[in-house]
Specification:
The chain is α/β, with parallel strands linked by helices and about 110 residues long. The protein is built from four helices and seven strands. It has one domain: Transcription Regulator spoIIAA (2-Layer Sandwich), CATH 3.30.750. It is about 40% helix and about 25% strand. Belongs to the anti-sigma-factor antagonist family.
Amino acid sequence: MKFSPLALDNACLITLPKEMVMSQTPTLRAAITRQIEAGCNKLVLDLHQVEYIDSSGLSILVSALKLTQKKAGEIILLSPSAGVRALIELTRLHQIFTIYEDEAAAIEHICEL
């Protein structure tokens, strides 16, 4: 997982790993939570490398969204693969997350808020 600060002090691009599965959930959740608690309440979660995500991986996304919303922030999902997007749509998470395919557009959107 890679954290990249954006133009705003409270915005960050997070590139997620190839797999988001139960064995990694505590580590990933803790790292993202630390970032939010440190003041980054506007996140772009880059999913382009994620090849597999299970329900515990999806729970990380939902937990992060709830935490950022408590801090008047937002999360944007960036470039999910076809399989990951299908799971996001199957679970109807596309109705609560904004999803972008273009990194520049996602960053522009998050930095305007």
